Amino acid sequence: MSTPTHDHPQPTDPENPGAASAPGSGGPASIGPADMDEPPKGGSFLGYLLRKLGGAAVSMILVVVLGFFAFRMLPGDPVLKIAKERPMSPAQIAELRSQYGLDKPVIVQFWDYLVGILTGDLGESYVYRKSVSALIGEYIGPTLLLTATAAVIAIALGLWLGQLSAWRRNSLFDKLASSTSLVFWSVPTFWLGLILLMIFGGTLQWLPTGGMVTPGLEPWSFAAVIDVIRHLILPVVSLVAVVYAQFLMVMRASLLEEMNEDYLTTARAKGLSEDEVRRRHAVPNALLPTVTVVFLHIGGLIAGAVTVEAVFSWPGLGKLTFEAIRGPDLPLLQGTFVVFSAIIIVMNLAADLVYRWLDPRIRRA
Fold first, then answer.
1. Which of 11, 185, 266, 270 is deepest in the core (most CB within 10 A)?
2. Nearest CA-CA partner of 305 in 104, 168, 148
3. Following DSSP, what letter does each residue of 3-58 receive, concatenated?
């Protein structure tokens, strides 16, 4: 009769204490990291926030440097252009160049530019003869009104149509919504604005062709508010038509990925209607990848307002930038470039933070 053999206990790896013991060791069985269903917790939110803030700070530094040197490569001399507008002697031209600091070495101009940004002084506009900071404060209101209105409409319309299109995939509604959005997505915003301007402002004369309010109306009166809304319609439609299409396609693609997941089958087995399954289970999970796109395009809307404001003569930062390019008005160009870039960087940072808050997998990564 043979004596039963006993396996020797497998020693636990001191560098991997969570490794499972061999069968028959008699020791408590433990589950290794590879067997865990739930991923390990990641770093703290403070560490994550500091990393993202550091990345945003580096991006902002690069924007500041690029904003100074890139615009100095533009053709044209702002002082000579001013001199063409009215007769000036060579001595007056030299004095004007000295007044704007353009006679200093480039590195000295760059240092003055950095000091000005840190102190909130963005210089004086060559064209408007006013502080750039004051001009930006004056023109940023109409830009925020235009882009905020367009963003709210585009997000609501794009996400709503996107989830309906995915849920009714391959239907006539899905084909019409998808094909229409692809057409609008490929259309340049300024070109669409010109078409709308010619049709509704020129041929039909239903809506104003430019500006923000008709001169002579009392500010904040009911008639003035209605007039501003009428002026808003065409530029808002130009922005919404392009941006909503991107939200629709991203939302549709995200929801289609969720359609065959097991948790939706479980929800249906519990007796939930298709509408409840879509609204309470599928759509919230499909929104996760869409959040980043939404925040990125909110920043992009403000930057994209340059062409739309120029087409419709909307008195915002976009039109101000367009006028500065014609100068070239270097301080004004630098100021608006920094503001636009800062908004996009902040939106990127907000997208990262919101995505981490919505998706626990990011918090544990």
1. 185
2. 148
3. PPP-PPPPPPPTT-TTSPPPTTS-SPP---GGG-SSPPP---HHHHHHHHHHHHHH
Q: Quote the CA–CA distance of 297 and 43 in Å, as a whole number.
A: 29
pLDDT digits (tens, 9 = 90+) for 329-355: 888 888 888 888 888 888 888 888 877
Sequence-ordered list of residues with C-beta below 8 angstroms from that of 255, at least 6 positions apart, any chain: 162, 163, 166, 167, 282, 283, 286
The pTM for the full model equals 0.73
Q: Residue 145 contacts by C-beta under 8 Å, 6 or more apart in sequence?
A: 232
Percentage of the chain beyond pLDDT 70 is 84
ω into 328 cis (within 30 of 0):
yes
- CA 167, CA 348: separation in Å to the nearest integer? 29
* Tokens of residue 97, six digits: 């160049």
Counting Cβ atoms within 10 Å, is residue 3 exposed (0-12), middle (13-18) or buried (19+)? exposed
> pLDDT tens, 27-70?
444 444 444 444 445 557 788 888 889 999 999 999 888 888 88
Residues contacting 241, CB < 8 A, separation 6+: 184, 187, 192
Cβ neighbours, 10 Å, residue 105: 8
Residues 234 and 72: their CA atoms lie apart, in Å, by 35
Band (pLDDT 50/70/90 cuts) for residue 104 is: confident
Residue carrying structure tokens 């939200």 = 247
Asked if 311 contacts 208 with a C-beta cutoff of 8 angstroms, the reply is: no
CA-to-CA distance for 358 and 115, rounded, in angstroms? 39
Cβ atoms of 341 and 328 within 8 Å: the answer is: no
| Alpha carbons 147 and 347: distance in angstroms, whole number | 14
Assess contact for 301 and 150: CB atoms under 8 A: yes
Sign of CA dihedral 47, 51, 54, 56: negative
